[in-house]
Design a protein that fits this description.
The complex is a heterodimer. Chain A has no helices and 9 strands. Chain A is mainly beta. In chain A, β6 and β7 form a beta hairpin. The radius of gyration of chain A is 14 Å and the shape is globular. Chain A starts with 8 loop residues before the first strand and ends with a strand. Chain B is built from no helices and 11 strands. The interface between A and B is medium-sized, with 21 and 29 residues.
Amino acid sequence: DAKTTQPPSMDCAEGRAANLPCNHSTISGNEYVYWYRQIHSQGPQYIIHGLKNNETNEMASLIITEDRKSSTLILPHATLRDTAVYYCIVRVFPTGTASKLTFGTGTRLQVTL
Amino acid sequence: KAGVTQTPRYLIKTRGQQVTLSCSPISGHRSVSWYQQTPGQGLQFLFEYFSETQRNKGNFPGRFSGRQFSNSRSEMNVSTLELGDSALYLCASNDPGLAGETQYFGPGTRLLVL
């Protein structure tokens, strides 16, 4: 799986959009970009994933650059409950077997009043 | 749909004992993965089961074992516990999907070995 680079920490005011960047310059054509988050001492929570098109769901939007070398996770209206460590993962869509997930150090997002 | 459930949520054991953790995946998911998470090592893959068969295994000693039942529920067992086994044990329910596989995690079982 391609390596990802994320800033170690970010702050965001409650109600504002949180834009979390991820660099994955060595991504291959068949690798997906996944985002998870983990609130302290809880299990990781799946947020969103995509291949090359921008994606949106009820939690967030994922913007992938045209060359796919970087992406941004957007939480449109951050709340205090969004304070967590966010992990950007790049991995191949497995065929016939669930590939293991590997989390890097992620970005610690602190949402403040 | 109900999410992934793990029992127990917290456990305290002493060295040398053994422990069994349980995981019920999301209804309809046939694949379950287990992970160990510690502050020092981060998230480490233990093994994955699909239709009662172990499909993938991480680099853990034989003290760590697992199984899956016909209803997709899974258990993992750790024998002869060591202090270093203290960790958050996570179960993930795997959805193959049509546009990328997604793993949904349970709340975890926090194991403390004294």
